[in-house]
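Morning. Coffee machine broken again, so started the prediction first thing and wrote up yesterday's gels while waiting. Chain of 76 residues, entered below exactly as on the submission form.
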Amino acid sequence: MTKLYVGRIAGETTDADLKALFAPYGVHSAVVMRDGTSKQSRGFGFVEIDGDAQAAILALNGSEFMGKKIVVAVST
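Came back before lunch.
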């Protein structure tokens, strides 16, 4: 399993939205990081991929999702 960082996501993006975006690549889980107090999106999240993470990065890095150009990379 590979953990991916997904950055520059729209504020209204939900965990389910991220999971649906990565579904073709064997997504295991997806979470949008939120502020502990306000619960507002922090503009990034993480996705765990069971399948081809490199294909997901190549296909989705720099693509537009919910009106924003997202960044997708292996999480360090």
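Strands lie at 2-7, 27-34, 41-49, 64-65, 68-69, 71-74. Going to sketch it on the whiteboard this afternoon.
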